Amino acid sequence: MTMAGNAIGNHFRITTFGESHGRAIGAVIDGVRPGLPIDLAFIQHELERRRPGQSKLTTSRQETDQVEILSGVYEGRTTGTPICMIVWNKDQQPKAYEKLKDVFRPGHAGFTYLAKYGISDYRGGGRSSGRETAARVAAGAVAKNILARRGIEIIGHTMEAAGVRAKTFDRSVIEQNPLRCADPLAAKVMERRVLKAKKEGDSVGGVVEVIVMNPPLGLGEPVFDKLEADLAKALMSIGAIKGFEVGNGFAAARLKGSRNNDPMYVEKGTGRVRTRTNNAGGIAGGISNGEDIIVRIAVKPPSSIRKEQETVTVEGAPAVITVGGRHDPCICPRVVPVAEGMVALTLIDHMTRQRLLARKSKLQDLRDTIDLIDHNIVLLLSERQGLVRQIGALKKKRGSRVLDKGREQAVLKKQLGVARDLRLDVRFVEQMFRAVFKLAKTSQRELVDR
Prior knowledge:
The chain has about 450 residues and is of the alpha+beta class. It has helices spanning about 40-50, 110-115, 135-150, 185-200, 225-235, 255-260, 330-355, 365-400, 405-420, 425-450, and strands at about 5-10, 15-20, 25-30, 65-70, 75, 75-80, 85-90, 155-160, 165, 205-215, 240-245, 265, 275, 285, 285-290, 295-300, 310, 320. It is globular and about 85 Å long. The mean pLDDT is about 90.
């Protein structure tokens, strides 16, 4: 019997490979169109958020999780061929699991793998290990990178851990505490309880929420490929996830329709249909409605604990087990970037399907496209300013002048020629570039004059 099910997605598809204590893990992404810029530093940053050894709340396994792109990217841009990314395992210790070779660990997949396939990788769980999620994060980072260029943000955070639930939401503090909690006060209580459980040789679970800001309208394919159905599959495929909800989720079962329905209105200025509340979590009828998409997952307590547990050997004899070694007392903070990545991959896959529909644009479609272009203009302006500051730093180091009229005139001449070819208003384009030059000179002067 083959071990299938290592891929997810229809048009934007990823396949992960590798084992916890094997030589490496990785992912192959198929369906990425050519010419897209790939930010390797961002992919590495996302892996840093997931990697072990971040704090006293995580496993002490020391992995740098340095990503290497083997194919599909040339000179920083996608080629349209499969992107293969690999992360080499540097701190694997398979011998540490020798004493567990012939006994099942409660809560782990050893028994079910052996029963199904006749073989089980006892070295940290092999494919069933949380180590596999590093490959998901690398692939998800590519998806997040593409989404960000379209103004779509994905924010994950620990909403609950060790029975403590966040009461406030401040996204600026999420990466400032080891729980990745958006409530700084709750984060401190969570941390104390997690450390208490760790000291007792136990572990705790929690709830992770993922919010998609500025999502596209119309994602989702009724009936069996509803957006929330695919999000559920993507998130529930993460090890240790035991529950999923969207919007009000299970709380909706305790509400009347008059409370759970989202009142609708037309937004002034844009003509967009909006909802005054978001109990549906941004999805209605399996299709995104343009509001923030909000999903939550229940994360079980890690199964590897030092406390004694009743179990059996592979021969069926009764046994008692304690699991030592390097294990997380709570995996919620490390699940956050994994969940963000899986949401991003699902959205990209549905956005690719949406483009394939090639339906005729309506007024709102055109406005949405203009909004996207405007957003990209701002992003490009920000990127330009960053480069301008780098040039300013070099000029300061060399003692060069900020003003460079020759360079400005050359750029202006070239771009006005392009404007004429495109039949744009040349005077408007000239005014725009002169404003950009003025902003650049101001930034450089501020840096040079310090």
